């Protein structure tokens, strides 16, 4: 058996436990845990103190944490609830975002920041659905037109950005044909499993078995979801695709076929407990450990990239919110734009893929993640301040279904 040490994992799990405790002691400090986890990783990693490195145990659990993060992000999306005019506006908004992002990417290539402007463009088009939903819930805006519009736009952006990242820039060598085939297979599986789920509900014997085992040590629903997650990730890897696509689609599939919260109300909480209680903090802390912050510190001229990337996020994802002015009004559309510009987990993932494929330097990856950290700290607070201002009532948009409440863990995404 190879010599394996758990010292690095011990420090990382200690950080994962200390961060929410610190936030609990200072409830007025409204900072998502993910921000402090990444900052702690930066401080403890080679960039500052050098106390922690990413060894084999940390790497394995970090990959599992990324898979669970994408699973839970996919679980937030209500595929059946995204329809009608609201879906059309959200899709059009993403097209506008993509066009603006390509211009930003071309500018980045002209400045010598990236050899792949399209990669940078895709990285800038995502919105962190799991971060903006808790903000909307705290403000009591989930069910109103602002919340529904933001959720629809973030869902479209998350899904499309992950598909594009896999389609165009997979580190595993899969091509567009494989990605298209995988998405087609996913669509077939959704249809088949929805039908099977209906048959299971009609089968009293199998339904009784699932209900009987779901809250015992068997935890059958959790085990089936983990099986589905590993199967999709393994299939994506076998086809030469990014594993993040498999994990995300596994979550979307679970969300599509498992909507009966009455017979298993604790199911989502159990998945949150596995993800946010253990695996996902390891991913974020280790991401901070591997972040090449020293490259920014050693080259002060590179620090200018952080505010530029932050402004780019605001432009790319904020300007499309102008499409919602006729229905929401200027004030609330501005709040939607700020929430749409909030992005971090996808930027962390894209930064890792970019450095692995040579499309981003360590300096650019660090600047991109730092910009994401600032977006989480600044944009939601500005959006809440804007939503606090009175404005004449506007014609409401068609409502998209509210994503399932994942509890306090959703604030980590």
Search tags:
single chain; 413 residues; mainly alpha; 70% helix; 0% strand
pLDDT < 50 stretches:
397-413
Distance between the termini: 36 Å
Number of helices: 18
How many β-strands, per DSSP? Answer: 0
As a whole number of angstroms, the C-alpha radius of gyration is 21 Å
- Portion of residues in beta strands equals under 5%
Instruction: Name the shape in a single word.
Output: globular
Description:
By secondary structure, the chain is mainly α. 70% of the residues lie in helices and 0% in strands. α4 runs antiparallel to α14. The chain starts with 6 loop residues before the first helix and ends in a 26-residue tail after the last helix.
List the helices and strands and how they pair.
Elements: H1 7-25, H2 33-44, H3 56-76, H4 84-110, H5 117-123, H6 129-138, H7 145-169, H8 176-202, H9 204-213, H10 220-238, H11 243-257, H12 267-290, H13 293-298, H14 305-318, H15 325-328, H16 330-340, H17 345-357, H18 362-387
Helix pairs in contact: 1-2, 1-12, 2-12, 3-11, 3-12, 4-5, 4-7, 4-14, 6-7, 7-8, 7-16, 7-17, 8-11, 10-11, 14-18, 16-18, 17-18
């Amino acid at each position: 058996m190879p010599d394996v040490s758990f010292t690095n994992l011990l420090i990382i799990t200690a950080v994962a436990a200390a961060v929410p405790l610190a936030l609990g002691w200072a409830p007025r400090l409204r900072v998502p845990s993910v921000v402090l986890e990444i900052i702690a990783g930066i401080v403890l990693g080679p960039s500052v103190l050098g106390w922690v490195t990413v060894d084999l145990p940390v790497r394995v659990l970090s990959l599992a944490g990324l898979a669970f993060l994408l699973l839970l992000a996919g679980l937030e999306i209500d595929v059946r609830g995204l329809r009608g005019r609201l879906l059309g506006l959200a899709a059009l908004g993403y097209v506008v975002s993509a066009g603006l992002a390509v211009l930003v990417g071309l500018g980045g290539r002209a400045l010598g920041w990236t050899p792949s402007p399209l990669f940078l463009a895709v990285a800038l088009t995502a919105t962190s659905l799991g971060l903006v939903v808790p903000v909307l819930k705290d403000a009591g805006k989930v069910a109103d037109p602002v919340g529904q519009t933001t959720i629809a736009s973030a869902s479209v952006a998350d899904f499309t950005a992950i598909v594009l990242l896999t389609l165009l820039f997979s580190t595993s060598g899969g091509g567009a044909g494989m990605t298209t085939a995988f998405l087609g297979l996913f669509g077939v599986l959704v249809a088949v499993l929805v039908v099977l789920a209906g048959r299971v509900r009609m089968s009293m014997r199998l339904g009784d078995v699932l209900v009987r085992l779901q809250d015992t040590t068997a935890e059958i629903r959790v085990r089936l979801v983990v099986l589905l997650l590993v199967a999709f990730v393994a299939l994506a890897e076998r086809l030469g695709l990014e594993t993040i696509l498999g994990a995300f689609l596994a979550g979307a599939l679970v969300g599509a076929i498992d909507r009966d919260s009455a017979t298993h109300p604790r199911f989502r909480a159990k998945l949150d407990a596995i993800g946010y209680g253990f695996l996902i903090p390891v991913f974020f802390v280790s991401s901070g450990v591997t972040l090449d912050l020293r490259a920014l510190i050693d080259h002060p001229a590179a620090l200018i990239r952080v505010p530029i990337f932050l402004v780019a996020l605001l432009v790319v994802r904020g300007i499309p919110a102008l499409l919602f002015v006729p229905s929401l009004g200027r004030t609330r559309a501005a709040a939607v734009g700020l929430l749409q510009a909030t992005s971090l987990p996808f930027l962390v993932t894209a930064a890792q893929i970019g450095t692995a494929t040579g499309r981003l330097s360590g300096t650019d990856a660090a600047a991109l993640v730092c910009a994401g950290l600032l977006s989480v700290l600044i944009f939601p607070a500005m959006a809440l301040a804007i939503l606090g201002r009175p404005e004449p009532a506007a014609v409401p948009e068609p409502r998209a279904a509210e994503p399932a409440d994942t509890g306090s863990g959703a604030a980590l995404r």
